[in-house]
Amino acid sequence: MKTIKRIIKAGFINFWRNKAVAIASVFVMTVTLFVVGSLILGASFLEGTLGHIKDRVDISVTFKTDVAEETILDLEKSLEQLAEVKTVEYTSPAQELESFRTRHADNALLIQSLDEVGNPFGARLSILAKDPSQYETVAKFLDNYNQNQGQGIVDQISFKKDIIDKLLSVIEASRKVGFIISVLLVVMSILVTFNTISLTIYTAREEISVMRLVGASNTYISGPFMIEGIVAGVISTFLAIIALYPMSLWVRNTTINVYGGIDMVAYYVSDFGRVFLSLLVSGIALGLISSFWATRKYLKV
Amino acid sequence: MIYFDKVSKIYFDDQAALNDVSFVVEPGEFVTVVGHSGAGKSTLLKMILAEEKPTSGNVFFESTDVHALSKRAIPGLRRRIGSVFQDFRLLPNKTAYENIAFTMEAAGRSDEEIQSDVPHVLDLVGLGDKIWHFPFELSGGERQRIAIARAIVNQPDLLIADEATGNLDPVNAAEIVEIFKKINDIGTTVILTTHNKDIVDSLGKRVITLDKGKVIRDDKSGHYAL
Predict the structure, then answer these.
(1) Do residues A153 and A76 touch, judged by C-beta distance below 8 A?
(2) Hey, what domains does chain B have and what are their CATH numbers?
């Protein structure tokens, strides 16, 4: 207990007295944690956007105009029971007509001819799968269902397979590339931090040898260095989380005109707790482990 | 107290730093080890502190074989030995007080003991008024006094001083030697290495002379002869 108290006290005093060196480690660690934080926010953004895009991709089934509503509602029920299906939305022929009218309200000719023809629209089901890769299954199900209905009830299945496949490959590629870049960046930053802390401890190697000569145990020697590492980690966490806010603002303001913009600030706010905790844990671990490894080198008898 | 039994240290280039060295130091003795640079004086002291391992032979501190100690047991041995070096080896980021307190903390002494013993031992070496100075604010002689205060604060059984006066002017050197004598008078065994003839001759104590790693003389009341 006495020893732990002394180690912690010595760690803080050393940090304060080696300000110049400590600031260097804090700076490098802040950059590292900033990179980690940006990657976490970037990943949230990617996931959010992909989810958003996925929700817009669906299968649209248009039925022949003479198909009874009950038949379609039956199909809707059986579709809803499929494990792959998230939601099914029914649009009646009347609703289809209504939305067509509002869409082309300024085209008098079209509206007029429509009045003469009556309602040419069949009912429609929009099916949203839980995952884009499952549309194939849903499409097959619809095909089978249609064939079992004798002459068929389906007028048209619009299933944008090409787009879905492209989207899937983009998702996969961006995940892979993002992952590799993140790993590279994180490894690089960790190595730089580790090197900086090693250097600061290298400057203290004489001190370490003196401490050993006066009979200090290894724990008692390396303890304060590890506390210094932790202090640097905690300070860096705060600096990094503060620095992430203007970055989010900047990203939002510079991308605001591009397809709706990347609202990083929203992710910053909604993920604040998670990001802060991740950074704190990484910061403390980084400081602790670097100091531990660096002092170990000079503690071998 | 200290027993060197046929100790040899051969470095990788086949140079023998110590060659079949044997001697005994009794408790309470004041021994000076003399010799040219490279004669093996420092290697000898490093062996006692378990800083270097002999190539062959054994070094005993009382009845324990120093080099058979486990890594964890070595700090315990070092706490029983006070050491003073030519280059002082103080902790640069700690004040005089903290430098001495550090040794006591490392030995697990209580805060009360530290608060009462540190000023006392600084008074003893005549630095009671520089207790909160950092090493860089002190002269060479003053730094060496702090190093001595640090070496004796845990009341070691043995004090070893490696060229402790090597960086000091004659007046300071003589004062430091006086402090060593006082420490020896209260019963602490002292082993000193030096190549300062005046110091050796003025002491009139036991002198071990090393040359090229061998003990060539061991005089009960010796003088500097090389």
Answers:
(1) no
(2) 2-219 (3.40.50.300)
Which residue numbers of B have CB closer than 8 Å to A's CBs?
A: 49-51, 71-72, 74-81, 83, 89-93, 102-103, 105-108, 110-111, 150, 154
Asked if the Cβ–Cβ distance from B75 to A301 is below 8 Å, we say no
The proportion of chain A whose per-residue pLDDT surpasses 90, expressed as a percent, equals 24
C-alpha span between B128 and B97 (Å, rounded): 10
Task: Read off the pLDDT band of A161 (50, 70, 90).
Answer: low
Q: Please report the pLDDT score of residue A140 as a whole number.
A: 81
Neighbours of A252 (CB within 10 A): 17
Residues on chain A touching B78 (C-beta within 8 angstroms): 212-215
Across the interface, which of A6, A14, A301 has its CB nearest the CB of B105?
A: A6
Contact A214 B111 (CB under 8 A): no
At A85-133, the pLDDT tens digits run 888 888 888 888 888 888 888 888 888 887 887 788 888 888 887 776 7
Please list the residues that pair with B159 across neighbouring strands: B82, B190
Q: Which residues of chain B have pLDDT under 70?
A: none
Spans of all domains in chain A = 2-53+167-299, 58-159
Amino acid letter, B89: R
Chain B CB contacts of A3 below 8 Å: 105, 108
Instruction: For strands B30-34 and B206-211, give the pairing.
Output: parallel
Q: Which structure tokens are listed for A242?
A: 């503060």
What CATH architecture applies to the domain A58-159? 2-Layer Sandwich (3.30)
Give strand pairing partners of A60. A126, A158
Please list the residues that pair with B192 across neighbouring strands. Answer: B32, B161
Determine if the pTM surpasses 0.95.
no
**Residue pair B208/B44 in contact by the 8 Å Cβ criterion:** no
| Among chain B residues, CA nearest to A300 | B71
- Residues 6+ away with beta carbon under 8 Å from B175: B141
CB contact under 8 A, A215 and B111: no
Q: Using the beta-carbon criterion (under 8 Å), do B93 and A212 form an inter-chain contact?
A: no
Q: Which residue of A has its CA nearest to B71?
A: A301
